[in-house]
Specification:
MutS, DNA mismatch repair protein, domain I; Trna Endonuclease, Chain: A, domain 1; 5-stranded mixed beta sheet; 6 helices; 33% helix; 20% strand
């Protein structure tokens, strides 16, 4: 073996070969309902869902640094309802093992969360537009929106879902704008009119 071949072999050993992606079937895409939480117990399935859309979060891992983890994946009711609606997840009750339908899961969401239906419609609309939608609580909003995903790019905007007919006071608006400016994001209000198609209002802030 000559020197150049040896250098190539060493480089391959240092870089390592990429792992082949786990093959996930429809039968594998299963989760359990535990009160108001959805758990994907199979880490391989959880890793696949996180890699293909940044759904959920691995239990006990605050900021995953890679796509392959050995923990169960916890999904929100919003994420689970969306995945169920597009046939990318099957959900069953933890004790009875009875399957949960899309309509039933929506009713569970409405019982546990304020404005669940409106948030779900906005979440679904943003997902279908190709965005990665993550919780925006730490930014003082309902959702943080990414073009590619957390850790890859920064969230350019945050979205707050406002019910129709609810007034937003000037003080609340200024407070939200200041927070968005502090974290370098655009503040957006989403509302859902009777036709069910979300409308978005983005605010730009400037100094006179």
């Amino acid at each position: 073996m000559n020197e150049s071949e040896n250098q190539i072999d060493i480089q391959k050993e240092e870089e390592g070969e990429e792992e082949e992606e786990e093959v996930i079937t429809e039968e594998d895409l299963e989760a359990e309902l535990l009160e108001d939480r959805i758990i994907v117990w199979n880490p391989k399935v959880g890793s696949w869902l996180y890699k293909h859309g940044y759904y959920g979060k691995p239990v006990g891992i605050r900021k995953p640094k890679h796509f392959n983890f050995t923990r169960p994946l916890e999904l929100s009711l919003l994420e689970s309802t969306y995945l169920l609606s597009i046939n990318k997840l099957r959900i069953k009750r933890a004790i009875s093992n009875k399957p949960i339908s899309y309509e039933e899961l929506k009713r569970i969401g409405e019982l546990h969360y304020d404005r669940f239906t409106e948030k779900f419609l906005v979440y679904t609309d943003l997902r279908k537009k190709g965005y990665v939608v993550r919780p925006g609580l730490k930014f003082g909003a309902d959702f943080a929106i990414y073009e590619h995903g957390p850790g890859i790019d920064h969230s350019p905007l945050i979205v707050h879902v406002l019910s129709r007919g609810v007034e937003l006071s000037p003080i609340e608006l200024v407070r939200a704008g200041r927070l968005a400016t502090t974290v370098r994001k655009k503040f957006t209000i989403a509302t859902v009119p009777p036709d069910g198609t979300p409308r978005y209002f983005m605010f730009s802030w400037f100094k006179p």
